[in-house]
Structures are given as C-alpha cells and as structure tokens.
Amino acid sequence: MKYSVNGDISLEPIALNFVEDIFDAFDYEVIQYLPLDEPPSHIDETRAFVEHSITQMDQGKDLVWVILHQGKFAGCCGIHSIPSKQPHFGLWIKKEAQGQGIGRKVVQFVLNWGISNLEVDYIKYPVDNRNAKSIKLIENLGLQLADHYPIGTAKKLEVDEYRLYKS
Question: Is the entire prediction scored with pTM above 0.85?
C-alpha cells in the first residue's frame, strides 16, 4: 500500500531495497528517543529488522512504511500490534530531513488513516517526555495524554503515551 501524503511526501511499504538507506541513517542521534540501546553495528542487523517488518506486515500484525521526501528516503514509520485494537504508532526521520515538517505531515496522515481504516479503539503514540519537538507536534494535532511509564533496559525512556481515539 503506497500512499501520497502530499506532493512531496509519500509512504511506501518497507522493503529490502531500503536496507542500506535505513542502516546509513540510523545513528545515535536518530535513536535518542527510541527504545533502542544502540544503533545497528552491521547492515545485517538492519536487514533482519526489515525482514521481520515484512513478516509482521504479511501476518497483519504491523504496517511499516518508509517515508520518501521528493522521492528520497527520509525515515520510517509504522502502526504496530494492530490485532490488539489499541496499536501504537512510531516514527523516525533521518537527521538531514528533520525540521522540514515531514514528521508532522506523516503523523497527521498515518494516524488519521489508521483511525479511518483499521478496526481499532484508539492508536497510541508513545513519546519520551524529553522529546519536546514530538510532544509539541502531538499536542498540536489534538492527541490526548493518557498514560506515563518507563521503558528500556540500558537506556531508560520516560514515555508519555498519547492517544487518538476513534470517534
């Protein structure tokens, strides 16, 4: 399922041809607020992530897209744990593409698409409470703060869970 977010931004299902783009962009800065202790040290780790994502999509558990901006790789996003009826959304944008409004447009599009097209009660958007840019974006979209909890092993995140409810 490919989607056009607007004239410059599109979403394409994650595929093996994006392994190198993902690996090259996934560094400590990008994972700062993600529940990962380390970025992948070898491209095979990224290939395994992409293969797992494809399997999860084939099984109807997740939807994972690469984000393209003007036809070039800009990041990834996904709706995960769809069968739960309370799936969660995640997103990351590579450093060079940050600050251009790509994340805001993708978040708005995917959350609205998910609420309209999936059989869910609500979609969770967990965000580390130190990630001021993401929190501002979420609050501007009208999501409601619903929960707070710590996650992580070596690296601890303090997550604020926002939700978009199906009306």
Answer: yes
